[in-house]
Design a protein that fits this description.
Length: 87
């Protein structure tokens, strides 16, 4: 099931809430969602614009955090390959 922008905005509001229960529920929903395909952009959006720490993500949503880490690793490898191969 794909997320909508409205659902992503609701999750972001929950992550940025002062209520720790809201943050917990948002992280549980994020951990349960696949974030493959077009939804991957929403994961980047939630990570970038939430007022949460990497430790919060590591403790509450490790699977999505690993997807983000893999993106960074793959991007760095691609940039390195471009420099080596002169693309």
């Amino acid at each position: 099931m794909n997320l909508t922008i409205s659902e992503a905005d609701n999750l972001l509001s929950m992550l940025n809430s002062n209520d720790k229960d809201n943050m917990y529920i948002a992280f549980k929903a994020i951990e349960a969602h696949d974030f493959s395909g077009p939804d991957f952009g929403y994961l980047i959006y939630l990570y970038k614009f939430s007022n949460t720490s990497i430790q919060d993500w590591s403790e509450n949503a490790p699977t999505p955090l690993n997807k983000l880490k893999n993106l960074v690793i793959m991007s760095c490898l691609l940039l390195h390959m471009q420099k080596v191969l002169h693309f």
